[in-house]
Specification:
By secondary structure, this protein is α/β, with parallel strands linked by helices. 44% of the residues lie in helices and 18% in strands.
Length: 211
């Protein structure tokens, strides 16, 4: 678990979602997470199934945000658990040892310790920078990454407003993965130049981990 953790936007256009996701996967992605907070169940199932097939094609683990039943139905690689979802321990007990269980910890080390004890596969911290997608206080210090690396024996993910530039100091402190939505999917400007823009964005994130 090291590199770019690609998270999908709330796009209802499945073809567009798959097209941009594949452009990113071609450049190299550590994990792919399906996150669509407003989709109806049928669309969510359609998109998640199609993205799972795409992730399998590129050998990338596929995670579903929130929807444990959908993960089970599709046999996805795991689930990401937010602050208002089922506990990590509950999800781990249900999915078993072979699946990935990620946990949102915001800026709270106590949540990270609970997640680790509950069997989390990684811990995710956010609120470092303003986000176009996730709405939370920008109150998390970059130095929490140093604390996580000292005290938690799990990969550390940083998320929220991530660009290659502002993720750099977090990776320098030891962040294992950078989760991005808008910095990749937001590069889709036109049918002419979108492929280059998406590819360059992914390459720039991956360069942070090249050393």
């Amino acid at each position: 678990m090291r590199g770019l953790y690609l998270v999908t936007p709330n796009w209802d256009d499945t073809d567009r979602l798959l097209d941009v996701s594949e452009q990113a996967l071609q450049e190299g992605v550590a994990l792919l997470q399906y996150r669509h907070k407003s989709a109806e169940a049928e669309l969510r199932r359609e998109q998640a199934g199609a993205l799972l097939a795409l992730a399998r094609k590129y050998g990338v683990p596929f995670i579903i945000n929130d929807y444990l039943e959908l993960c089970e139905e599709l046999d996805a690689d795991g689930v990401h658990v937010g602050g208002t979802d089922a506990s990590v321990a509950q999800v781990r007990a249900r999915l078993g040892a072979g699946k990935i269980v990620g946990a949102s910890c915001y800026g709270d080390m106590a949540l990270a310790r609970t997640a680790e004890a509950g069997g989390a596969s990684y811990v995710a911290f956010g609120g470092f920078y303003p986000s176009l997608v996730k709405k939370y206080p920008v109150t998390t210090s970059a130095d929490i990454v140093l604390q996580v690396k000292r005290e938690i024996n799990l990969p550390c993910v940083v998320i929220g407003g991530m660009t290659p530039e502002n993720a750099a100091p977090l990776v320098a402190r030891g962040a294992d993965m950078v989760a991005a939505i808008s910095s990749v999917f937001g590069k889709v400007l036109s049918k002419v130049d979108q492929a280059d823009d998406v590819s360059i964005a992914v390459q720039q994130f991956n360069q942070l981990f090249a050393a």
